[in-house]
Design goal:
mainly alpha; elongated
């Protein structure tokens, strides 16, 4: 891109809508489930603090990947 060219704006994107209450409730449930998973691994299974944090982080990243894929599929269907 040279200096005199204007960057193009992707007009095909839809404006972002507000996040619904059900989505926020789902995020809250997921956060509580991840925190419970951490506590279960640390206190019940006694696998150590760092191992519990790592396992919970892995589960959180997997959940974020799933949410990202579902969001992409839903956005492309519009």
């Amino acid at each position: 891109m040279s200096v005199d060219q204007e960057p193009t704006v992707n007009e095909a994107r839809h404006p972002t809508d507000e996040v619904s209450t059900a989505t926020l409730l789902g995020y809250l449930v997921a956060a509580l489930a991840l925190f419970g998973w951490f506590l279960f691994g640390w206190l019940v299974q006694r696998q150590g603090f760092v191992a519990s944090v790592g396992e919970t982080a892995g589960a959180a990243f997997a959940l974020l990947l799933i949410v990202s894929v579902v969001g992409t599929v839903r956005r492309d269907r519009r």
